[in-house]
Amino acid sequence: MATKPAAPQLRPDLPSLPGEGQAPRATSLKTLARDIERWAGELGFQDVGIADTELANYAPAFRTWLEQRLYGDMGYLARNVDKRLEPDRLHPGTIRVISARMDYLGTPPPAATDLPANDGSAYIARYAHGRDYHKTVRRRLARLAARIDSSTGGRFRAFTDSAPVLEKPLGEKSGLGWIGKNTLLLSEEAGSWFFLGEIYTDLPLPVTPRRPQPGCGTCRACMTVCPTDAIIGPRKLDARRCISYLTIEHKGTIPVEFREAIGNRVFGCDDCQIVCPWNRFARRSPEAEFAPRHGLDHATLVDLLGWDETTFLARTQGMALRRVNYEQWVRNLAVAAGNAPPDPAIVAALKRRQESASAMVREHIDWALARQCAP
User: Rounded to whole angstroms, how far apart are CA atoms 322 and 314?
Assistant: First the structure.
């Protein structure tokens, strides 16, 4: 739909641009583009760029990926392909896309050697330590769109991983970075520890000039480190093997062939980011909403296995961890427990969860107990 965002303005004294209330002029649009960058910074975004909507260069690789069914159970990725490749079909009238970057590390950036270890701890992907980014980023984008509207008018729609949008190609076209071999958008200034959001608009804003990007060169660190060999080629991911997919998107039984490789990762995986050389330039986010909650940046398997469903729902409220249900949560913990060093406390925690588990989860618990109790 083509409605304008109803989010409140950041401040009541928003600046006016020349010609406000009139058809935009080329000079005012150039000024507006500079103002958008400034306003985005005031709203907590670290970078912003503007692109046209031409995505034809990305279509062949995307369609081939879909044809090979490398998306696993994520059938929604194979729907609305035309809307992904032609933004005007998703939001009629769109001729420009404003892409914005918001850094999310709530703790200091990890060193390249800080990979998860099977030591009884539970590893949760860093993006999920704090508040659900969908809520934070989308709200800020809506405020940015409202501020643009108050200055110049136009039609806008904001997205944050919430619609058929090719975020990384649009981010690349907007000058925010390049798509790396791990399929993530990489920034020369900030690595990859960030969220993306987009505003579709009918304003003919000047596009951000594309500057040469350093790229990944001959580096294959992300491809080499992947525990399940999910990165099957530069910029090509077999989601069916990816730990983030297996522990979040996949709802059923985790194939035995991947369980040991999952290690202690109970929600997502950061390995390909941890080893990326460009992430030495990443910085800790100033955003308080992304700070870790409930000690989830250093939780133990015993602690988390102690959560019943009521506790899980209470402590994950407003967090990206709600992308999994309690059944998936216990399933993932059981796999990690099966990879942990033998520990009577883990065995006891697994047995307590075994009593009320579904058949699917009980199979993972049995697998974990067999490994914990092996002679």
Answer: 10
Q: Which helix (H) or strand (E) holds 147?
A: helix 133-152
Q: pLDDT tens for residues 344-353?
A: 999 999 999 9
Helix axes 344-354, 359-372, angle to 10 degrees: 160
Q: Tell me whether residue 335 is exposed, middle or buried, using C-beta atoms within 10 angstroms of its C-beta: 0 to 12, 13 to 18, 19 or more.
A: buried
285-290-292 Cα angle (round to 5): 110
Is the pLDDT confidence value at 22 over 90? Answer: no
Q: How far apart (Å, rounded) are the C-alpha atoms in residues 248 and 138?
A: 21
Residue-wise pLDDT tens digits, 192-206: 999 999 999 999 999
**Residue in 52, 161, 297, 343 annotated catalytic:** 161
Which one, of 295, 372, 310, lies nearest residue 339 by Cα?
A: 372
Helices (H) and strands (E) in the chain, counts: 15, 10
64: left (phi over 0), alpha (psi -120 to 50) or beta: alpha
Backbone torsion region of residue 158, taken as left when φ is above 0, otherwise alpha when ψ lies between -120 and 50, otherwise beta: beta
Whole-number Å distance between alpha carbons of 343 and 353: 16
**Residue 210's pLDDT is what?**
84
State residue 161's pLDDT score.
86
CA 168 to chain CA centroid, nearest Å: 11
334 pLDDT higher than 70: yes
Strand partners, 47: 101
Of 298, 275, 194, the residue nearest 227 (C-alpha): 275
**Where does the pLDDT of residue 68 fall: very low under 50, low under 70, confident under 90, or very high at 90 and above?**
very high
The average confidence (pLDDT) of the chain is: 92
Q: State yes or no: is 161 an active-site residue.
A: yes
Look up residue 177 and give its two tokens: 């970075």
> Which pLDDT value is given to residue 26?
53
Cα separation of 112 and 278, whole Å? 10
What per-residue confidence (pLDDT) applies to 27? 53
